[in-house]
Write a structure and sequence with these properties.
The complex is a heterodimer of chains A (about 90) and B (about 210). Chain A is an alpha+beta fold and about 90 residues long. Chain A has three helices and three strands. Chain B has one domain. In chain B, strands 1, 2, 3, 4, 5, 6, 7 and 8 form an eight-stranded antiparallel beta sheet that branches. The chains are: A alpha+beta (about 90), B alpha+beta (about 210). At the A-B interface, helix 2 and helix 3 of A face strand 3, helix 2 and helix 5 of B.
Chain lengths: ~90, ~210
């Protein structure tokens, strides 16, 4: 029996497989074929991408805190007021 | 806003060529006239676009669905808006700023019967102060945007009242030319700043989470 891996799992396997075509035999005798047509990123490259995304998010947090330094959530009274106004449209 | 004179630390998130304009516009706050422009001519679907007469739905405290058309702001990232990427868009309702102030003024006056001139002046002052704070975008749940469409005194995007609407309806609205405005480039950066402040600001240190699952 042949089965294709779900999209979420495939990239993990592809990192191991690189450009090769491999056949894995599972303990339950399910044969899985994974085919990659392009070179896949190395583990080091992927880790760098994650670090970069994390830093970008931190930069946005920092910029937001700088620009809207004194921003505060609505008080209970203000929230009640704006919500009453919103419901008044119905 | 002296902290924003040096943008070099944000070079990873703001392209170098946009930094002078962003720095200039952020220094204009509380003037937010630079946030919005005409609907983008070439790109039909952009994050933050404002569409008129768009259906929304909310569950009230009795778990009854209440639906009404509002002008809305589309919150989805532009990259998610092309065909085949989404089944639903996320929309935030937009209300008239001046009408809200009138509503709140009437409410405050009604709360105090037989007001003297001094008390009336106090209510007026308190409403003016509320207007000032909102207009400066200092309330995390509410995005104040300058005049566009029918909102000649500006409008409030209610970020705490978002809802999901089928992309089919979104596409129909685009075909019907219901777009009223798009964010400018620097306005878009401010939109991200506002959304970050509303959704992703750091938790208070008083919030103690478990360190292990």
């Amino acid at each position: 029996m042949k089965q294709t891996f779900p999209a979420v799992i495939a990239p993990i396997i592809l990192n191991l497989a690189y450009t090769q075509v491999n056949t894995f035999a599972s303990p339950t005798s399910v044969s899985v074929v994974v085919e990659a047509t392009e070179p896949q990123p190395t583990a080091t490259f992927k880790a760098a991408q994650i670090d970069s995304a994390y830093l970008l998010a931190l930069d946005w947090l920092d910029l937001s805190k700088t620009v809207l330094a004194t921003a505060q959530p609505l008080t209970a009274e203000e929230r009640s007021s704006i919500n009453d106004f919103f419901w008044s449209h119905f | 806003m002296a902290e924003l004179d040096d943008f070099s630390r944000y070079a990873r998130i703001i392209p170098k060529e946009h930094i002078p304009a962003l720095s200039r516009d952020l220094k204009k706050i509380p003037d937010f006239s630079w946030l919005l422009g005409q609907p983008h001519q070439e790109i039909e679907r952009l994050q933050g676009d404002l569409l008129r007469d768009f259906p929304t739905v909310y569950l009230d405290e009795k778990v009854e669905a209440r639906s009404r058309n509002f002008t809305v702001m589309i919150l989805n990232n532009t990259c998610d808006l092309p065909d085949g990427r989404l089944d639903f868009v996320t929309a935030a309702p937009v209300v008239d700023f001046n009408k809200y102030l009138e509503f709140e003024r009437a409410r405050r006056l009604k709360a105090h019967t037989q007001l003297g001139e001094t008390e009336k002046a106090r209510v007026e002052d308190s409403v003016r102060e509320l207007a000032r704070v909102i207009r400066q975008n200092k309330k995390t749940e509410i995005l104040f945007v300058p005049k566009f469409g029918e909102f000649q005194g500006g409008a409030l995007v209610l970020l705490h009242l978002v809802c999901s609407v089928s992309t089919k309806i979104y596409h129909e609205a685009l075909r019907a030319k219901q777009r009223l405005a798009s964010f400018t480039q620097t306005g878009f950066y401010f939109l991200l700043i506002k959304l970050t402040t509303h959704i992703a600001r750091a938790e208070s240190t008083q919030v103690m989470r478990k360190e292990v699952a």
